[in-house]
Design a protein that fits this description.
CATH architecture of the largest domain: 2-Layer Sandwich
Shape: globular
CATH superfamily of the largest domain: Ribonuclease H-like superfamily/Ribonuclease H
Distance between the termini: 40 Å
CATH class of the largest domain: Alpha Beta
Structural class: alpha/beta
Number of strands: 12
Helix content: 25-40%
Oligomer: single chain
Number of helices: 9
Radius of gyration: 23 Å
Order of helices and strands: EEEHHEHEHEHHHHEEEEEEH
CATH topology of the largest domain: Nucleotidyltransferase, domain 5
Number of domains: 2
Strand order of the largest sheet: 4-3-2-1-5-6
Largest sheet: 6 strands, mixed
Bound molecules: zinc ion
Length: 286
Amino acid sequence: MNYIVFDLEFNMFFKFKESDLANPELKNEIIQIGAVKLNEALETISSFDLIIKPVIYRRMNPYVKRKTHINTSRVVQGTPFLKAIESFHSWVGDDSVLCSWGHDDILALRDNCLFFGYKMLAFDKFINIQQIYMKYGSLSNQPSLESAVEGLEIEVSNPFHDALSDAFYTVDIFRKVYDFSCDVIINWEKEQKENEEKIEALKQMIDKATIRCPQCDRLIQKNGEFTKAKKYFAYGCCLECNIQIRHISRIAHRDGEYSIVSNNTIYKSDEIGPLAKTAQELTNSE
Ligand SMILES: [Zn+2]
């Protein structure tokens, strides 16, 4: 059994001109896969590095470009995703454990595979190295790769935000914090599907939330409401306290559990209308 420590860079939507629209089916398009293959003793066997040609977000988002130093002319010459993922898959081999820093990369890898119709890669064995590091350092907030490298006094020899060099840093961390006696391999695919089902169930319930007056705790009648993806907004008026109330519910993820978190706030009449204001807030928070 080998460990595949991988890292991805992705490009995402940027409004270059007014008519540009994001593709809701793919938010993060992979533009680089970097990975290191380790044996059971965590010794390096080989590495993998490919630039991928984006087809949804062809022009580099300026923020991503600044961070990764990958420009449009470089990705144009990249490998198409399906070809890249096929060669990645054959390099990964069977009976390997995928390992990465946090959940974002494995999520993006699966999303890209689904989007481009590649169903061969298995996500049933996964190690989240960030989680191991957090347990090791008794941390409650998710640390960045840079801060973990610093925290473990790992020598910085290459720039961050290059998929391959980030994969190598993740390997350095993995070697320092991995406890061979602990079983940390999870069935990511199974967990992910269960989470998606939980979110779907909560989405069905989100607009059933009741509004309460934050001052007197009375149940308030809804004067208006709308739902947007994982958020629900309603407003009403407490006739006892003579105040306007705005209600926001959203699906939150805390300590591995999904739940609906509701918040009722007093809205003052000199503010702009509650519907307009919240619509603005919901758009800004995305
Ligand atoms: Zn009240």
